[in-house]
Design goal:
The chain is 38% helix and 14% strand. It is of the alpha/beta class.
């Protein structure tokens, strides 16, 4: 049985793809450069079959785990890294990084407005239970955007306070409508912050951005990058986990928070998952390129239908997320229904808005993934609030991502498929 995509939608897809030759060529070139960097790191550290053996219990002397830390450090151009399946998600990894860098009496500064919704409870901006940075005496401040862009002047002024010991930069837009930050922009922000306060540690939430460009924030002045393995760097194979890479003292501080002081990264068994973490990292540059192509294709198709997109299909990409402004709730629900039907897992399910933990409004999520919650696999989600913007990301292969987008368009146009 073939997927039922009508001729009208197929023609629209062909038209869109035919206009994306230059964009796809640039994406492929970046993937080639990143793949070379990853391969060089694998060869430098003499990756061998013995690295894939897992450990249990305490996880002492896990050679594969420790070597993977070194490989991540090389790829991100840093002194150290911590790659662990014990991180339950990106928010957990970022929280460990923040707690490791800050102590009571310090100030955390967010450089581009409020962070992602799930971090609001971590910093204590909203009360989501005991254990926030605020509860431990860390003050939180943020620099608002200026015309929906980073305000460098205000950033410098706010960072100059000697109590500011850490500055958080969120690379991706999250559920805001600002543009995601380029590595070049992050580099300029790092320069401004360091000039104002040389002792402040700059931490970048790198989720959704890894391998989209040929360099990472730690190559341009960031002290630490943090992300989730079920997003870009896991390549669609990592079953769980997160990573932290950067200055050695900051990595060690985060490790002490993940476990306990005195143990840090010395413990943490890998339970036979090393092979998937290595193979996922090796595939990540290619897989990310597939996701970026899917995002660009979706943007072009929706633009041809008259929808507003951010970024535009012709724009250079800085993360894998594609915003499409649906403007009304029913269109948003239809689009997500079509994306769900285009998934290899749970395609028969109809997504509905629900009260998702960590968010201040209902959220609708279409995600039929092999790894639960894996944003590198094709998914679409949105907070149910104006302007009813859907956030599309992922696509393990462009071919499957393309089909998912076309099925979403077909549902949106009212040419429903049969289940």
């Amino acid at each position: 049985m073939l997927l039922q995509i009508n001729d009208r939608v197929k023609a629209l897809g062909d038209q869109a793809q035919g206009q994306l030759t230059e964009e796809f060529s640039l994406i492929d070139a970046i993937a080639q450069e990143n793949t070379a960097r990853v391969l060089a790191a694998f060869q430098k550290h003499r990756v061998a079959d013995g690295y894939f053996a897992g450990t249990t219990g305490y996880g002492y002397d896990d050679l594969g785990r420790d070597k993977l830390d070194e490989i991540y450090a090389d790829i991100f151009g840093t002194e150290a890294a911590l790659v662990r399946i014990q991180f339950v998600n990106g928010t957990h990894a970022i929280a460990c990084a923040l707690f490791g860098a800050l102590k009571s009496g310090d100030v955390l500064l967010s450089a581009v407005g409020a962070p992602y919704d799930t971090l609001l409870g971590v910093v204590g901006a909203v009360d989501k239970g005991h254990g926030s940075l605020k509860d431990y005496g860390v003050e939180y401040r943020q620099v608002e955007l200026l015309d929906n862009k980073p305000d460098l002047d205000e950033m410098a002024r706010a960072a100059a306070d000697p109590r500011v010991k850490a500055v958080l930069i969120q690379r991706s837009k999250g559920y805001s409508t600002r543009a995601s930050l380029s590595v070049e922009e992050i580099g300029e922000m790092c320069r401004v912050i360091k000039e104002a306060n040389p002792s402040a540690a700059i931490l970048v939430d790198n989720c959704y951005g890894e391998f989209v460009e040929a360099i990472e924030p730690t190559h341009v002045g960031a002290d630490l990058v943090v992300g989730s393995l079920i997003k870009n760097p896991g390549g669609g194979l990592a079953p769980t986990g997160g990573y932290i890479a950067g200055r050695r003292d900051l990595v060690e501080g985060a490790a002490m928070r993940l476990t306990v002081p005195g143990i840090g990264g010395e413990c943490g068994c890998t339970l036979g998952q090393n092979r998937l973490l290595y193979q996922g990292l090796f595939l990540a540059s290619h897989t990310v390129a597939q996701a970026v192509k899917t995002a660009v294709f979706a943007a072009k198709v929706m633009e041809l239908l008259g929808y507003e997109t951010q970024p535009h299909s012709s724009a250079v990409r800085h993360d894998i997320i594609q915003m499409i402004h649906m403007r009304e709730p029913e269109a948003l629900k239809k689009f997500c229904k079509g994306i769900q039907f285009g998934a290899p897992v749970d395609s028969y399910v109809t997504p509905e808005p629900w009260d998702m933990p960590g968010y201040d409004c209902q959220v609708i999520m279409a995600a039929g993934a092999f790894i639960q919650g894996a944003s590198i696999e094709l998914s679409a989600d949105a907070p149910m609030r104006e302007p009813y913007t859907v956030y599309l990301q992922g696509g393990l292969t462009f071919e499957s991502g393309r089909l998912g987008v076309l099925l979403a368009v077909q549902e949106l146009l009212g040419d429903s498929f049969s289940r």
